[in-house]
Queue: 3 jobs
Job 1
Amino acid sequence: MPELPEVQTIVDGLNQQVAGATVVGVSCDWKKMISVETENVSPNGAITLRSEKTWKKFESMVVGKKIKNVERKGKFIVFNLSENVHINAHLIVHLRMTGHFLIITPEKRKDTKNAIHEKVNQYIHFQMELSDGRIIALSDLRKFAKIAIAKKSDIDRIIIVGQDPLNKEFTLEKFRKIFKDKRGNVKQILMDQSLIAGIGNIYSSEILWEAKISPLAKIENLDDKEMKSIFNAMKKVLKLAIKMRGSSESDYRDVDGNEGGYQKIHKVYKREGKECFRKDGGIIKRIKIGQRSTFYCCKCQI
DNA sequence: TGCAGTGTTGCTTC
DNA sequence: CGAAGCAACACTGC
């Protein structure tokens, strides 16, 4: 569920609150989510940590390090860890479906009643304790989230993502170029992380409504004008969603445990059977594209 | 009550 | 080889 706007909101929160902090301990009760990336492994790179020995390796690469800063790459969150001044390890996290980070202060730890979203505590499967007593916790109901520790030389092998939609250098011209030789329906192509990174099921529907393009339209049939409206809609929708601190359909929370606000202004997502906000007499339809629910207005999206 | 459906990704199958 | 299906997991709602 966390797509670009949600991940960006989390990364901004982490940067504001924990950049510069030192990790003094890590714990995990679901070690399947952890991997250690080393230069010696091939071809997928990951060693799954099942033994205590490999967990110790992970621990040794994180504990005692300073969180220099936190970055977003597509839907990935990267904690840049440093010893002295040089960044020497990257903690890479993908939240998948239901993962989210929470920063738990010592006060909140004591105050169990008011602490966090009450149902969240039991889903915390990974924690990093900071020297000031705060905890960075990863809550994940479905346990799909992935955490990897990697050296700089391994990072590009793990994070393979395309253009960032909100990068100022990502122009309309580059956008057109990426799709020039691509085939297939536009919705699935917008969600292809190796082309453009960060758009998922919710925002692809929202962007295509904004652009007045059917999710079933074939990318190879779209003209320049239509490609331009998708490009503009993409930037507009994602920027506004970040401003609203993301969409909370179910589990998503920001690092302080608060819901986002964008779900309140979804134009099509989960609005099946309702009137189109364009007041064009259209009713929002729900279809399946590649096993995923897709929402669109049958009147204005052609 | 039980089973289909739920944001994502990646591996397997055809 | 590319597209489609399904598994990973736990909960909700019909």
Job 2
Amino acid sequence: MWESVENRLRIAGLRPTRQRVALGRLLLDGRDRHVTAEALHVEAVAASIPVSLATVYNTLHQFTEAGLLREVAVNGSKSYFDTNVSNHHHYYIENENRLIDIGETSSIRVEGLPETPHGMEITHVDVVVRLRPAAGRR
Amino acid sequence: MWESVENRLRIAGLRPTRQRVALGRLLLDGRDRHVTAEALHVEAVAASIPVSLATVYNTLHQFTEAGLLREVAVNGSKSYFDTNVSNHHHYYIENENRLIDIGETSSIRVEGLPETPHGMEITHVDVVVRLRPAAGRR
DNA sequence: ATTTGTGCAAATCGTTTGCATCTGA
DNA sequence: TCAGATGCAAACGATTTGCACAAAT
């Protein structure tokens, strides 16, 4: 049923090198995750995958271009990469800089989109629901 | 009908200094704009308002905290400040890094939001419709 | 053998900060 | 007067890049 990581990379036009395969095994196992380059690098090194931060960045972008990941922008500083490539939206926990999927199963949807402007097409509609601890606690 | 920029700053608890007033005049004239710190700095200098980039950053953040501006995160790198503080959403033109308001008049709305998690409250729901030139052109 | 990927360190980009100097109330 | 604001340059964090070396086809 499932292609090996090697084959998925090949199909995506990426040579299955050691580090790509290793990172792919961490990311493309079907779990829904949101990683930063930094965090993935730490994780890889901890898993005895010798890889440089620069290569992690390269790999994340290559995977994203290949449609294996999706990049999510929530705050001006760091970038998050989402292993869930299907249509879904996010909660963003402001005080802890954390991103959570709003499952596809949720009935969330955007209604009443106006006409798309002149010669443009929609690549994606991002919905981010920003959350903070309720009331008292701040 | 309209408060002067000076008074709006005073009301917001900000001392109406030269540069705040000058930047306020550029930003708070009722036009809907999306500026980056860099762009605003260039604009200010061009308008013979001697102000440093650091002060532009400070001012943008102070205005944002005071509710005079809203910060919009669309891509991992730079921050945009929106002079339209009311409830509305955005188009983001990917290939030219440009942000456009989807007017409040549009019937856009988000339906079927799931229960907000445990002890959290929504600060804001951001909708970004990402656009690129249609079909052929790329 | 040739092409493509990788690691490292240096470079870049946007943004923030420390601190001496100014300025508005 | 003097708390608060500003300017500058240096510091910073995240990301990118240049180039010599290594690995995949």
Job 3
Amino acid sequence: MPELPEVETTKNGLIPAAENTKVSDLIVRCKALRWPIEKNLSILTKNQPIISIERRGKYLLFRLSNGTIIFHLGMSGHFKVCDKSVPLKKHDHIDIELSNGKILRYNDPRRFGACLWTEGDPLCHPLLVDIGPEPLSRAFNAGYLLKNCKNKKANIKAVIMNSKVVPGVGNIYASESLFLAKISPLTKACDLTENQASNLVKAIKSVLKKAIKQGGTTLKDFSGTDGKPGYFAQKLKVYGMAGHKCTACNSEIEKIVLQQRATYFCPNCQKATN
DNA sequence: ACATTGACCTGGGAGC
DNA sequence: TGCTCCCAGGTCAATG
């Protein structure tokens, strides 16, 4: 489910609920998500003020006064803001109860998500330390992308989905960005021209920004912290549109499989360069 | 160092 | 109705 816009939407929903509060209690109802959950998490976080809630790539950082809870939503994770009286649903794995009475409730059917505790700088955590610059920052630019494509034989779609190059671009937005930039997903990264790199960077930024404005993309599981879906699914040009007409040239959108992932593109607008 | 594949889970839909 | 199979927004770990 969640790529950068969905995580950003989640963060934006959590912040107003958690501002100027403390963790009054934290309840974990499963042993592990992707990784085991710190057994003492409840004790460690009790009565700790929430300093901030931040996003880095697809990770959510709950900075407390004595450490940080690092969340990743995996494929099916989502947060809901509610109060104690709301009955539990299946797969409600974690409740962060706040001193204002609200609960940040984490639900994750597939349990591919993560909930980790760190007392050091969370940006230096092994999972975060090697990830690339934020796609919406100036550090993510054509020169940077080109440098990271050099000598790489992998296709360009794999490269922009590699969080060590740039985090936050998942399977949906990779297809959408390549369509907008008119680059074939099959293009070898090392063959990317300066012009293409520039167009691709612009396309990624544009697609992500628009998706954030729409509250993300809901195909199935995702909802914002208010339970409402994201509306970017209605704006998708190629993802999930196999057999439909391209909005630019009227050709038929094709679906192929790359790195075992569904990949959608317009064979006419996104011609392979070799 | 890079590229590819399997693994982790559950649920929903298609097809029989 | 119920079974089996396939697919799904992520990404780490192991392999070549």
